[in-house]
Amino acid sequence: MSTGCENFLEIYPETSLSSETFFKTEADFEQAVNAAYAPLRNIVNDRAWLLSEMRSDNTYFARNPAFGATEQSEDLADFALPEADGVTSNTHVLNQYRLDYQIIARTNQVLTTIDEVEFDADSKNNLKGQAYFLRAFAYFELVRYFGKAPLHLEPVTGRAEATLPLASEEELYAQIIQDAQQAIQLLPPKSEQELGRVTSGAAKTLLANVHIVRKNWSEAETLLKEVVESNEYQLMPNYNDAFSTSTGNKNNSESVFEVQFMEGPAGMN
Predict the structure, then answer these.
(1) What angle do CA 132, 138, 143 make, to 5 degrees?
(2) Which residues have C-beta within 8 Å of that of residue 100, sequence separation ≥ 6?
(3) Between 241 and 62, the higher pLDDT residue
(4) Nearest to 99, CA basis, from 58, 171, 50, 28
């Protein structure tokens, strides 16, 4: 005698974490959102100055032939040229691309599963707002650096789903604006938020920056006036303090959003 079935049996591992078994509690989603912040450290410390300042008129690269390893930094501008069918071998470009999509992948996982789990509504809105902000931030970087990029809004579970076509600049900006607006509505102000996490003021500033890049001056002005008039921020009396090496200045009264680092041997320096 024999029996048969039409469907495959899927058994998720019970001794290790997976996306199918992890997202069960508020603490799980807080950990997931924390992980979405993590790539920002490498972005601002290792990538941003290379892909923006090094390619601007603010810097001049003087090649020292004694240090051949600097070639990847010197040739950053090459990725903007239509050579090799849009493919570049520059590691700085590759790493920037990967870091932004790490943020996008992690926030997509949060945003597509968080409403299925019951916990405090204010906490849930806060976490969702942070995820929307971070996804908008990552796509804002991608559209400014590359113009077009795949628009992923759902977790990628297989190779076929990973190969989305390039979205246009307008499509990317539409999603960035939508995510930033969602973040503004969901996030608390700086005075009510845990230090280091994004706030409604940070989301308004991000959206205002989007409008500035797109030369929508009146929209940017409206948002930035709201930030200034919120009384959540103020200039420090001593201008030099903005550049102090003291950790006492961390997340100060002028700070709209800072990427968090830790001194010493513990954690990410």
Answers:
(1) 120
(2) 39, 43, 138, 139, 141, 142
(3) 241
(4) 50
- Mapped onto helix, strand or coil, the DSSP state of residue 149 is strand
Full set of structural domains in the chain with CATH: 22-62+89-245 (1.25.40.390)
pTM confidence score: 0.86
Q: In 3D, which of 16, 11, 14, 22 has the Cα closest to residue 155?
A: 22
**Closest to 43 in 3D by CA, of 121, 118, 95:** 95
Contact predicate 148/169, CB 8 Å: yes
Q: Distance between CA atoms of 70 and 73, rounded to whole angstroms?
A: 5
Buried b (16+ CB within 10 A) or exposed e, 144-175: ebbeebebbeeebeeeeeeeeeebeeeebbeb
- In this structure, what token pair is assigned to residue 118? 């019951």
Identity (one letter) of the amino acid at 16?
Answer: S
- Give the Cα separation of 26 and 30 in Å (integer): 6
- At residue 82, the pLDDT reads 46
